[in-house]
Design brief:
The complex is a heterodimer of chains A (793) and B (287). Chain A has 793 residues and is α+β, with helices and mostly antiparallel strands. Chain A is built from 21 helices and 28 strands. Chain B has three domains: 47 residues, Uridine Diphospho-n-acetylenolpyruvylglucosamine Reductase, domain 2 (2-Layer Sandwich); 111 residues, Uridine Diphospho-n-acetylenolpyruvylglucosamine Reductase, domain 3 (2-Layer Sandwich); 107 residues, 2-Layer Sandwich (Enolase-like, domain 1). In chain B, the strands form four sheets. A five-stranded antiparallel β-sheet of chain B has the order 4-5-10-6-7. In chain B, strands 11-12-13-14 form a four-stranded antiparallel β-sheet, sandwiched between helices. In chain B, strands 1-3-2 form a three-stranded parallel β-sheet, with helices on one face. Classes of the chains: A alpha+beta (793), B alpha+beta (287). Bound molecules: flavin-adenine dinucleotide. The site of flavin-adenine dinucleotide (FAD) has 32 residues of chain B, from strand 2, helix 2, helix 7 and strand 10. Chain B: This is Xanthine dehydrogenase family protein subunit M.
């Protein structure tokens, strides 16, 4: 593929001016005449039986249009489905009513909805809805939830076990462990991957308008995947799919939390139909913390078997994944398919025996949060590789190198059965170590603490799975959809282009990168290209933005469509130039006969002719547009090496991140600025998991970290300047050679930082395992527990 | 996060404001920068029926040196205090404290009077006000009175102010010769408030500590003077060891509060460490 002007260029994001000057239109900005506002009354209890709901006082409040309860929705709004029915796991799918009727199962579960003339009236009236609850015992911890005698959330789900998913080869793994116990090392460790709150800057919002005359429903809302939303809206409301239009206007971040189909959108649609008014609902931040999905929340017992030279021979473990009170849209797939299948990471670990239990608890449902399963897997493997190195007193970089999948083994089939498309792990590690000056840091560390500060260096060499994904493969994992992507490239008579994508970017920058790709393919100025997404009335079916698939799958569809346009244009150009099509050269927007570049037809001239259609070659239809539906043949597997350098204050346990080097390989890079931006954002979220973030529930199921004053959303001043770099190993099967980079930062950085802190403590003789977030108190307790005086240097 | 309905008044004078407070009694709340009051109203933890916005009353903000005292108007923002040249010279502790409050938006709106009146147990100023021996000037229906900082902070979110009194000014002493001051803070990673904040004012003479005043915030239910530390410091030549020894008393006599981020025991430990650091820094600045 010829490298042309814009592919690889550092072009500033075209979407930024409107976003940073307040001229973007988000769902909550929508104004429609007659708009009413909904407020959802939510359970203050984690687990309770609803004895009675009295809505009369609320109905009498000024400005109230209507009040509905779960009973009103019964039979009209179907239960909220899950869309990832993982097979061979005895998956239980208990019904999830949009508004609870008998039982509430987490704090925030909806019980009633008030529609009023304005938001204030709705809020005030909601406070007047009286609900008699019989409080039931709650359970928030997934292991406790599976214990005998634990409160049961759903009638037909014994032990609250939603599924049991197993992977690997138990016998071979047992043999490898036996051998290691005899003549190598076996290490066992419990790892907690704490619950996180996604914190998109924009909270969720829905505006629904139903036209009873035409039967058309339009829903503007904060979704990452409008077509999936339309599909599920049709299933849940019973309205036919062709009568539903879903629009995702500007969406202010999602990080996975805007993938699911929530009860709230169905409730708002119900309200709009019943009242005959367009209805808006926007969650406030507290509601967002309670009802928008959370991420992670795994407890894992993991064992590793290794030879004395550091060769890892097997992994064995069990994970208890907290799914919350109900199965969210992709809930069952995240801790299994996107997690278990990536456990052996970038290493040639031949044996694996792994079980994941999905567990219901009285907490907010858990689903995909940036990285979705892979951060949890990477955390496990990258932490345990470090433990192997420590046990054998080997350098963690050497142990990684020893176990890397060698470059000549690609495509490589992992123990989990995935076919890694391409990879070259050594050079990324070399580059990262050189960038950070690893040897010098190790020497410095040997000299001991300085000013009471313990120096730590942490590595993370990750591989992840992106570009979701080949439809038949994801279908075999129980995903109730395809994951191909669509594109339409339409040239208008003046050769301005509109590009339609079935993906739904919401901050990732594809309005820029996609325009770059099309500009190259068609020789158009980038300003002549508009990228349209997020409206089911404008864009053909597509599957949305998540799983670092947008550029990989959506971009591939676009490049194929653009090439079809170019081929057709070439036919018309050949006709106009009175030449054979095979003799036509296309270069920078000009078609000419090979050898005669002076006599050219520009893409603009050809486009106009295509529309005028006065003189088209025989058999060629008028106009100039093409569509493509691209179903990838495989996933993509980006990788890289990250290094964190920390100082731990021995007196306070405070961790200071001093440097962070990220060398990523996401295949070919369309726009380095955007790749850096994605890496930076991911790093911040991943590092924050290591050091700051963590959702906590009381035993009664109350969310203790219920506001931003309690839950530590990271801030810019907490981070050093990130040092990013790249190696480039194109995906061999992707038409653009790209691999995806939306989640690598989150996936790689959490273990890098935790390894760095563990390394700092180890340099000081402390080997206590610490759970995230690594708060000063946790680190200090570890130091304090094995106290030695820190000598000033 | 939508507050309950309230009536809004914007008096033009202190007198008018006091009149409104008298009229509406417990239903009324003063609004200054709004950065403590509005968040709790949005959570409906406070639902005042009447808001008396003192923001438009002239003469309540600004900083002026007045002999041995610096007077700071109640409506002076954290940002103005951080940047003020007079304070930087005459009472740098207050400017240093203001600089680590919240973030820029908070410092642009929040006021020193509001912070003092709100008496959040994790607010920063109270440590400095206690260590400085500041005075809080308030006007009520019965006239003006001056309340020493040591008597002002009664308990968590409670001060010696009457509901009908308005803080008009805070007065802090000009830094004396041979005295140094410092504020050291461990911010909460979420809220930015002080998990522990220690303000130290240390006077040195002949290489020895002649007097010390230590204000501590964030640790207990209310800010306090660490008197045991102060006593232990007197007569010491201050180095890492002597300061640490004295600072070990930082949480003596108080009940350290614990939360998800830091247990009471750990807060007490942090109080000692930050006290040591503040004392050493203050001593190094004493000239
Ligand atoms: C995100 C965020 C982070 C913050 N971080 C910090 C921090 O790190 N450290 C810190 O110390 N603070 C912090 N704050 C609080 C901030 O400093 C507030 O501005 C301050 O506590 C209150 O001042 P205000 O002018 O906003 O008062 P308001 O919110 O207007 O009022 C607070 C209370 O004081 C009363 N009041 C106000 N003025 C007077 C007066 N003149 N006389 C009598 N009563 C009065 C009001 O009736 C009310 O009860 C933070 C706030 C936010 C929102």
């Amino acid at each position: 593929m010829a490298v042309s002007k814009l592919f690889g260029a550092k072009i500033k994001r075209r979407e930024d001016p409107r976003l940073i000057t307040g001229r973007a239109t988000y769902t909550d900005d929508m104004q429609i005449s007659g708009l009413a506002y909904a407020e959802i009354v939510r359970s203050p209890h984690a687990h309770a039986r609803i004895k009675r709901i009295d809505v009369e006082a609320a109905r009498r409040q000024p400005g109230v249009v209507a009040v509905f309860t779960g009973k009103d929705l019964q039979g009209v709004i179907n239960p909220i489905p899950t869309a990832w029915l993982i097979p061979n796991a005895d998956l239980k799918t208990p019904p999830h009513p949009a508004l609870a009727v008998d039982t509430v199962r987490y704090v925030g579960d909806g019980v009633a909805v008030v529609v009023a003339e304005d938001r204030y009236a709705a809020r005030d009236a909601a406070a007047q809805v009286r609900v008699d609850y019989e409080i039931l015992p709650a359970v928030v911890d997934q292991q406790q939830a599976m214990a005998a005698g634990a409160p049961l959330l759903h009638a037909d789900v014994p032990n609250n076990q939603a599924f049991k998913w197993a992977l690997g080869n138990g016998e071979a793994t047992a043999a490898a462990f036996k051998e290691a116990a005899r003549d190598g090392v076996v290490i066992a460790q419990r790892f907690l991957n704490q619950r996180l709150i996604p914190n998109a800057m924009e909270t969720r919002s829905v505006v629904a308008r139903y036209n009873s005359g035409s039967g058309d429903l339009t829903v503007w809302y904060t979704t990452q995947n409008p077509h999936i939303a339309r599909f599920l809206m049709s299933v849940v409301t019973g309205l036919p799919e062709h009568k539903i239009r879903i629009v995702a206007p500007e969406v202010g971040g999602g990080f996975g939390s805007k993938i699911p189909f929530y009860a709230d959108e169905a409730i708002v649609v119900f309200c709009a139909r019943k009242t005959g008014r367009p209805v808006k609902w926007t969650e406030d931040r507290r509601e967002n913390y309670l009802t928008t999905i959370h991420g992670r929340d795994h407890i894992t017992d993991l064992e590793v078997a290794a030879r004395r030279d550091g060769t890892i021979t097997a992994l064995r473990g069990k994970t208890w994944a907290n799914l919350g009170a109900y199965l969210s849209t992709a809930g069952p797939g995240i801790p299994t398919i996107l997690h278990g299948l990536m456990l052996t990471g970038c290493y040639t670990i031949p044996n694996l025996d792994y079980v994941v239990y999905g567990v219901f608890t009285n907490t907010t449902p858990v689903d995909a949060y940036r990285g979705a399963g892979r951060p949890e897997a990477t955390y496990l493997i990258e932490r345990i590789v470090d433990l192997v190195a420590a046990k054998l007193t080997l350098d963690p970089a050497d142990v990684r190198r020893k176990n890397f999948i060698p470059p000549d083994k690609f495509p490589y089939t992992s123990a989990e059965g995935l076919a890694y498309d391409s990879g070259n792990y050594g050079p990324a590690l070399d580059k990262a170590l050189a960038a950070v000056d690893y040897r010098r840091l190790r020497e410095e560390q040997k000299r001991g603490p300085r000013n009471g500060k313990l120096l730590g260096i942490g590595l993370s060499t990750y591989v992840e799975i992106c570009g979701l994904g080949p439809s038949s493969v994801v279908g075999s994992t129980g995903f109730q959809g395809g994951l191909w992507e669509s594109a339409v490239v339409r040239l208008h008579p003046t050769a301005k282009a509109t590009v339609f994508t079935g993906t739904s970017p919401h901050g990732q920058g594809e309005e820029t990168t996609f325009a770059q790709v099309v500009a190259d393919e068609l020789g158009l100025p980038i300003d002549d290209i508009e990228v349209v997404h997020g409206d089911t009335a404008a864009v053909p079916m597509g599957w949305g933005t998540y799983g670092s698939r947008t550029t990989v799958v959506g971009g591939a569809a676009i490049v194929l469509a653009a090439r079809r346009v170019r081929e057709k244009a070439a036919k018309i150009a050949a006709h106009l130039l009175e030449a054979a099509e095979k003799d036509i050269v296309f270069d920078q927007g000009r078609f000419y006969v090979r050898g005669s570049p002076d006599k050219a037809k520009t893409i603009q001239e050809v486009t106009l002719q295509a529309y005028l259609a006065w003189n088209l070659p025989p058999g060629v239809e008028p106009a100039l547009e093409a569509s493509a539906f691209y179903d990838p043949t495989n996933f993509t597997f980006p990788f890289g090496s990250h290094v964190a350098v920390v100082e731990v204050d021995a007196e306070t346990g405070q961790v200071a991140l001093k440097r962070y080097v990220a060398i990523d390989d996401c295949g070919r890079v369309i726009n380095p600025l955007i790749v850096d931006g994605q890496v930076h954002g991911g790093l911040v979220q991943g590092i924050a998991q290591a050091l700051y973030e963590g959702a906590a529930y009381g035993r009664d199921g109350q969310l203790i970290t219920g506001t931003m004053a309690d839950y530590a959303v990271p801030k810019a001043h907490m981070f050093p300047t990130f040092e990013t770099g790249r190696t480039e190993t194109p995906s061999p099967h992707n038409p653009l050679g790209v691999k995806g980079v939306g989640e690598t930062g989150t996936i790689a950085s959490t273990p890098a930082v935790v390894n760095a802190v563990a390394d700092a403590l180890r340099s000081y003789g402390i080997t206590t395992h610490l759970d995230m977030p690594l708060t000063p108190e946790r680190a200090w307790n570890a130091i304090h527990g094995q106290r030695r005086e820190v000598k000033a240097r | 996060m939508i507050p309950a309905a309230f009536e809004y008044f914007s008096p033009q004078s202190v007198k008018e404001a006091i009149g409104l407070l008298e009229k509406h009694g417990d239903d009324a709340k003063i609004l200054a920068g709004g950065h403590s009051l509005l968040p709790i109203m949005k959570l409906r933890l406070a639902q005042p029926k009447v808001i008396v916005d003192i923001g438009r009353i002239s003469g309540l903000s600004g900083i002026k040196a007045d002999g041995q005292k610096v007077a700071i108007g109640a409506l002076t923002t954290h940002d103005a205090i951080e940047r003020d040249a007079v304070l930087k010279e005459k009472c740098p502790l207050l400017a240093e404290t203001a600089a680590v409050i919240g973030d820029m938006q908070v410092r642009n709106r929040g006021t020193i009077g509001g912070s003092a009146a709100h008496a959040d147990p994790a607010a920063d100023y109270p440590a400095a006000l206690l260590a400085l021996g500041a005075e809080i000037v308030a006007i009520g229906p019965k006239g003006t009175r001056t309340i020493p900082a040591g008597e002002f902070f009664v308990e968590m979110l409670t001060t010696a102010l009457k509901p009908t009194e308005i803080i008009t000014e805070l007065r802090v002493p000009v830094l004396a010769r041979g005295t140094g001051a410092a504020y050291q803070k461990h911010p909460h990673p979420a809220s930015g408030y002080a998990v522990v904040g220690v303000a130290a004012v240390v006077t040195m003479s002949g290489g020895k500590c002649q007097s010390a005043a230590i204000g501590v915030t964030g640790v207990a239910g209310k800010p306090y003077r660490a008197t045991a530390v102060e006593k232990a410091l007197i007569g010491q030549s201050l180095d890492e060891t002597t300061a640490a020894k004295a600072a070990a008393h930082a949480a003596e006599g108080v009940d350290p509060q614990g939360d998800l981020y830091a247990s009471g025991q750990f807060r007490a430990h942090l109080a000692s460490v930050y006290t040591k650091r503040a004392v050493l820094l203050a001593a190094s600045r004493a000239k």
